[in-house]
Fold this sequence. Notes:
The protein is an alpha+beta fold. The chain contains four helices and 14 strands.
Amino acid sequence: MIKNLFLLIVLIAAFNVGCDKIENPVIKKENTINTDLYPGEGDYVIPPFGDYPSHTQNVLIEDFTGHRCGNCPTAAEIAHELKEQYQGQVCVASIHSAKPPYFFQSVSEEGDPEYPAYSHYFRTEAGDQYPLDIAGFIGNPVGMINRDIDDAGQIWQFHPTWSEKVDEILSANEPLLMNVQVNTNYYTETRGLFVHVKSETLKTMEGRYNMVIYLLQDEVIDWQTDYTATPSDIEDYHHKDVLLDNINGPYGDQLFASTSVIGETFQNHYTYEIPEEIEVEGSEPNNDTGLSLIVYLMNRDTYEIIQVIELGVTITY
């Protein structure tokens, strides 16, 4: 009887391993929430997660630009036309960066003849890191489409090819490897942004995969050089989807570094104090703040993005 029971346990264990699936596991990362940014009474409660907002492959266009780059507005227009055409499937991050000496991103200072024109500082730590780390950066305007490699073996792609690349990814309709969702709370009193991300493995995967969070300003009205305009220096140009910062660093947080099986889930929780120099719109609950988050999952070794979502930040109170 004992022998038969032992054999049954072994068979059940072998069956479970063979299925290569975990039923509703949750791996909670050790991310610290700064409760000093919570102005409410009692303890802060992490909001529950719901359904995933997308079950199909989405696309991130990373548009590397500069406010002194006269050809960059044409690239930005293409990127945002694609975002409008494929609403909910295409996200855009305008990243003001290049390689040193950052001519197209240079700013004027008090005492310069052109000041205050071109005095807005758009660059970010992460934005400056990517052209240095990801081989093949050519110069502005240039971009990456899900950091996927084109037919020539390049990650960095010129803007005339962006539409074709986006169409190629979306029309392929490849099954998702992982999915992701995000919840937020924003409190005006403390300028505290609470970010909660859930990721889930949909197919058994090997490798190193990270989750990254971009903080964007939906629109910044400031100077821009545009060679298609006369005069070419535009004082009130509408810069859209501007990268302000990475909530969790240039390459985010590691979800797993070897194997992840079907159904494995990960939760990551963050607080971020919005700096005073960043304009936050609205004042009442549920008002738009003019800020958005882009959350994406990436292969840390190849940089390829396997899923991305965008969420506008609204005021909690």
